[in-house]
Structures are given as structure tokens and as C-alpha cells.
Design a protein that fits this description.
The chain has 97 residues and is mainly alpha-helical. The chain has three helices and no strands.
């Protein structure tokens, strides 16, 4: 059935969905960049035989890796919330028995 005017609740749900997806994309991008850069630098140090420098770099980036992992968790959380919101908004209502 086609609606001429969208329900304000549907409009709000769509706006929340877009915001949650945008946050999820930004957090996922941050996670990808952090772990890619750390991985590249770590492999370069090991490849050049600089094991001591690798250990120092690994210790120095502990905080960055922690933030990257928390960003990953946040991205998953916002994605799951957006997914649940979209399913709730799109799924047909269940009639009471």
C-alpha cells in the first residue's frame, strides 16, 4: 500500500538510520586506516631485520591499537543498531492473536 505522506515516525527512523550508518562508516574507516598503517610499519621493520625497533614501535602504538579496536566495536554496535532500526521500520506489523 502506498502512502501519500510519510509518517513522521518513519522519517525520524530513517534519519536515525542514516546517522547511525554514517557513524559506522567513519568508525570503520578509522579502524581500517589505523590497523593498516600499523601493520605496514611493523612488517617493514621486521623485514629490514630491525626487531628491536619493531618491539619499540609495537609498545609505542599500544594506545593507538586500543583506540582502533574500540572504534571497531563502536562501528559494529552502530551498524547493528541501524540494522535493527531498519528491520523494525521495514517489517510488516505483527497482528495480535
Amino acid at each position: 500500500m502506498y502512502k501519500d505522506e510519510a509518517d513522521p515516525r518513519d522519517q525520524r527512523a530513517n534519519a536515525y538510520f542514516l546517522v547511525l550508518i554514517a557513524i559506522s562508516i567513519v568508525a570503520s574507516s578509522y579502524t581500517s586506516v589505523v590497523f593498516t598503517m600499523i601493520s605496514i610499519h611493523s612488517k617493514a621493520a621486521v623485514g629490514m631485520g630491525r626487531d628491536k625497533a619493531y618491539q619499540q614501535y609495537f609498545a609505542a602504538t599500544q594506545h593507538d591499537r586500543t583506540l582502533g579496536f574500540r572504534s571497531f566495536q563502536f562501528a559494529l554496535g552502530t551498524f547493528f543498531c541501524a540494522f535493527a532500526l531498519k528491520v523494525r521500520n521495514v517489517a510488516p506489523p505483527v497482528a495480535p492473536s
